Amino acid sequence: MRNNSFATKGDAVIVTGAAGGIGSATVENLVKQGIFVIAVDKNGDALSKTCKSINPDGKLIEVITADLTSEQDCQAICEQVKSKSIRLKGLVNNAAVGAFNMSVESTSFADWQRIIAINLTSLYLMAKYSIPLIRSAGGGAIVNISSIHAYATSTGVAPYASAKGAVLTLTKTMALDLAPDKIRVVCIIPGATDTPMLRQHAEREGKSLAELGFPPGDSAIGRIAQPEEVADVIAFALSKGASFITGSSIIPDGGILAKF
Ligand SMILES: NC(=O)c1ccc[n+]([C@@H]2O[C@H](COP(=O)([O-])OP(=O)(O)OC[C@H]3O[C@@H](n4cnc5c(N)ncnc54)[C@H](O)[C@@H]3O)[C@@H](O)[C@H]2O)c1
Question: Which is the closest atom of ligand 1 to the Cα of 227?
Fold first, then answer.
């Protein structure tokens, strides 16, 4: 039996959008495996609170408050990792904002740019500045979080779905560019997941998740995912067990995309 654990204890992974939802579940999963996590989020208070509850003595988490739409912040995160001589073996590009009721016509140019900046450009920026560190650690994996909206979508998500579609394509081209460096790049396509993103959407609409069509009645499993179920897939994508997966997607969607 092969040892499929992610990496040697003490190796590190950057997780963005780590204050809650899928990001914090991923931090918890990795820390439980003894992996050192650099947890990044714009919401510093929530991030500190979350990380303290996952790892009270702080030995396995470095907390960094940053706005990932800023090139300067992305560069500074990676410089901080480098200055601490941490062996960076992975990056989970998870941070994003939800954006609903937004058709092309109703979306202001400023909103379009804001959503693309966090949901697409930040993945490019974090990869750009992390790649030299992962390369010098002998390779590793980058996991980009997309969405089922990359494959099949709905009304009112023009900027969100556009960014998520581009994340899928970005994953493919990065995988080809980085294969010589032994860096795998994997896309995760979650379906609806019970996180602050979805709950805040329901609050704004003044409706329950069920009234908004969650869980989608047409999915095979018939419920929404728990963030831990998506985090398990992210951890797998980082692990040695996924050593032959690059440039492609893993789809924890409860079977929603299986149906017309
Ligand atoms: N929840 C779902 O139903 C669902 C479904 C498919 C895909 N996804 C994707 O999964 C990922 C995680 O989503 P989630 O549901 O856990 O969301 P969430 O809103 O619960 O968490 C996202 C985190 O990103 C952070 N963030 C946002 N903008 C930032 C910025 N500029 N700089 C730094 N941090 C920033 C937020 O503060 C937040 O903590 C996202 O990429 C999302 O698009 C979610």
Answer: 16
Active site residue 124: no
CATH number of 12-258: 3.40.50.720
**249 Cβ below 6 A of ligand 1:** no
**Closest alpha carbon to 26 in 252, 255, 228, 256:** 228
**Contact present, 38 and 116 (Cβ < 8 Å):** no
Our answer on whether the CB atom of 17 is closer than 6 Å to any ligand 1 atom is yes
Query: Quick one: which H or E segment has residue 222?
Result: none
Verify whether ligand 1 is closer than 6 Å to residue 149 (CB atom): no
Nearest of 90, 30, 97, 88 to residue 231 by alpha carbon: 30
pLDDT tens over the chain, length 260 residues: 455 555 567 799 999 999 999 999 999 999 999 999 999 999 999 999 999 999 999 999 999 999 999 999 999 999 999 998 889 999 999 999 999 999 999 999 999 999 999 999 999 999 999 999 999 999 999 999 999 999 999 999 999 999 999 999 999 999 999 999 999 999 999 999 999 999 999 999 999 888 888 877 667 898 999 999 999 999 999 999 999 999 999 999 999 999 87
Domain boundaries, given as residue ranges, for the chain: 12-258
Tokens standing for 215?
């869980």
Ligand 1 mean position, distance from CA 126 (Å): 15
Nearest CA to ligand 1 atom 11: 94
